[in-house]
Specification:
5 helices; single chain; mainly alpha
């Protein structure tokens, strides 16, 4: 016993913390442990964490709604930008149509421009994500707060192909749809 403090370790009751591989089996484990000799109580911390996880689920739903809204805004922005570009080049497109260019030939420069802008945006987002992961999370945050399960390099690298795929598909589809309505003729 450390006589400098008022409490000795022998004065505290023994306790064990059990982390279950399958949290659904808590009731069976609690009943088995409760019936053991010397066990005074079994605490279920799920009740404490239920509200916390409910808030996290709400935040996750909110983040998904914001992401879907941003995707819709992106589609509308690309469509509007392509329409403005097509309107600004209406003289060129009318000359191309006069000399017999197909609709695909007229649309291709606009779609290519939208895809190039989407690729540039995805590349910028990639560089930003890698910089945040390497310079902020790994060097500053993760060493200080080890309790949090931080985003891993595998997670970041797994998202990057989707970033490019969704960005290019969204820009290509939005510009194609926009031009189909504008350049029909």
């Amino acid at each position: 016993c450390d006589w400098s403090s008022d409490v000795c370790s022998s004065d505290l009751p023994e306790s064990f913390r059990v982390k279950l591989d399958d949290p659904k089996s808590f009731d069976k484990v609690a009943k088995a442990v409760q019936s053991m000799r010397g066990v005074e109580s079994v605490q279920d911390q799920r009740k404490l964490l239920d509200r916390f996880f409910e808030i996290l689920r709400g935040l996750q739903t909110f983040a998904l709604a914001v992401a879907l809204a941003m995707l819709l805004v992106t589609v509308l922005l690309v469509m509007n930008t392509v329409r403005i570009a097509a309107f600004a080049r209406r003289r060129e497109t009318s000359i191309m149509r006069s000399v017999g260019a197909s609709n695909a030939t007229i649309r291709l420069p606009f779609i290519t421009e939208a895809l190039l802008a989407a690729f540039s945006g995805a590349l910028l987002a990639t560089v930003t994500m890698l910089a945040i992961k390497g310079l902020i999370i790994d060097t500053r945050l993760a060493p200080r707060w080890t309790v949090i399960a931080w985003v891993t390099w595998g997670d970041v690298l797994g998202v990057l192909p989707w970033l490019f795929a969704v960005g290019l598909a969204t820009a290509g589809a939005a510009s194609s749809l926009s031009l189909r309505r504008y350049l029909v003729g």
